[in-house]
## 1
Amino acid sequence: MNPWIAFLLTIAVLIVVHEAGHFIVAKLSGITVEEFSLGFGPRILGFTRRGTLYVWRLLPIGGYVRMAGMDPGSGEPDPGGFLRKPLRSRFLTIAAGPVMNFLMAVVLFGVVFSGLGVPTPAPGVARIGAVMAGYPAQRAGIRPGDVIAAVDGRPIPDWQALSVAIQRADGHPVRLTVDRGRRQLELVVTPRLDPATHRYIVGVEQPEVLVRAPVPTAVRRGTELTGSIIGGWFGAVASSVERGRAPSFQGPVGIFGLVSQAAQAGLSNLLAFAAVLSINLGIVNLLPIPSLDGSRLVFLGLEWVRRRPVDPSREAMVHMIGFAAVVVLMVVLTFHDLIRMGIV
């Protein structure tokens, strides 16, 4: 798939899913939705249906759902205005965007697990799937497709037995009996210690097959993986803070590069990366940054504690300043990506 098409489709789908969360809950809560927009800037296409304007704008780097009554200077009060609805309805409407991103991740992971399949080490004999360049196996003459039948004369029924035999050699040369088609060869290889794992390796990889899980299992695994990634995200940020380092974030250019790599690796990798990106979009939107959903949830929390809403004009000012700051941050991240890639 063309990298630009993959990038634009991925971003557009994730934005639509996020804004659809706000839109659906707003409609269910009786809130008047004036506009559902994909992108910012000048209008390209649009139509009105049941009082809501659906718009596709020039810059596909975001989107929004504009609800009646959110702008304190919007004119005549609308009976379906956002601020006229109960606190619970407003809270659920704002929280629905990030929640939809998390649900989208579960769905995408489920599609990968059940529909496309997950690469899994192939069972059976110790057949070589790949030989790593520069490692002992390559120097010994082992090739992909070879079957390791024995090590030092001891039969090797599967990969587990091969791994045990390599570790048992403790770095000393071993004699491999290799089946290659109709021929049987005797090759000598010396395992070397991998400093990362502290295990002896020869530089061969097990072949993989695609295994499809039943839908209930796929959904469960998708849910577990989504929860694990969310926990890992906050754990990584906490670790960065403890070490006195700023967390690393990708700008639009960096995300484009990552989506392109995932697309080139196949549909399964692209969907899995889109799921991870959807999780990150949901988490970032929950952060208490002005103009993002997290900040609006904070103001709703203050309203619950104070038993009265914050002055809408002051809240609007905070969100306006926050939006400007987010735009500046996006420009800085884009510039940083270009420097890292050597473009500027």
## 2
Amino acid sequence: MSHRIVIVGGGAGGLELATRLGRTLGKRGKAQVTLVDANLTHIWKPLLHEVAAGSLNSSEDELNYVAQAKWNHFEFQLGRLSGLDRASKRIQLAATLDEQGRELVPARTLGYDSLVIAIGSTTNDFGTVGAAQNCIFLDTREQAERFHRQLLNHYLRAHAGQQSDEQISVAIVGAGATGVELAAELHHAAHELAAYGLNRIQPQNMRITLIEAGPRVLPALPERISGPVHRTLEKLGVRVMTGAAVSEVMADGLKTAAGEHIPASLKVWAAGIRAPALLKNLDGLESNRINQLLVRPTLQTTLDDDIFAFGDCAACPLGDGSERNVPPRAQAAHQQASLLAKAFALRLEGKPLPEYRYQDYGSLISLSRFSAIGNLMGNLMGSVKLEGWLARMFYISLYRMHQMALYGRFRTVLLMLSDRLGRSTEPRLKLH
């Protein structure tokens, strides 16, 4: 029987790893590769802010796991991880229910020889009073679509009314990449909605407030990047509040630690991450305070050589002599997936596994059609700051690189052509 590799989590990293292993080990019969995910389709998580604003139609950019498995010589299993038995080397999958609550796929177990956990992260509301009840998070496609429906409903109600000075207020907690990009995308959406005739709410009457507890926007990036982004957002009419921690979220708005009330009919929480609670003490595996599994530089968990973890759900040492871990970024998950694809080929041959070293190639922030800014880093060119059209092209190329890893060059080129043609026949904004 060939070596059984089970990958739990079909996000960017897990799906890329399953595809790579299927094309190599699976196609040659050297391993049986199985991908497990609770959904039937995949969408690149960095695009969820565009889904929320309506700039991206998720049904057109989604990837079907069943089809991807057929094309790339791996197996797909629908299910959500619910437990682990390391002694018998089996994982437990919870039952999957349909829209009516009826059992679609029963609970079951799945055996493995090597297990890879790549279930990503969720937003961390830090226990803030009312956040879970009154905010929308952008962890999944369903949440992003829910926000878009609520936004569109505000415009439709206003369009059916008699007043011409309607307003809508949006509060975004967290000025990291997601919060900043969502704020700019919503400003763009306001102009597009008005252009399509839903103009009882004028663009200047969409009041967007971006709230950050830290001293500046994009706290994880250099100040030479965050400064211009802050100024651009203010030019767009976004109210940017830094040094403002949110202490409570109510149905009609937010309250800061300083006591200020910020009215908001739509509220998004985009501050902080944590791994799913399931990983905390998962059959004795070590985890940290935000539930990430502790792994060694080989990406093997500290207590079990047969279990690997990577991406946002893993705490991997940065390897620079500090106590810091690899940052939870898409480029880290991509690098780790590439390393594991090589590592499993070596593992099956009984050879030592390579160790992961994070390479920071810079960051790019999209401000919708208005601008983009970021820095690219490399051994030859050092750190280069990019702005405007060139930065926007590099930002778009990140998604195309993700598509290329999944589809190959030829199909990615066809997708690019399809996207270009679709722009001339479809609305610029999703209006349903």
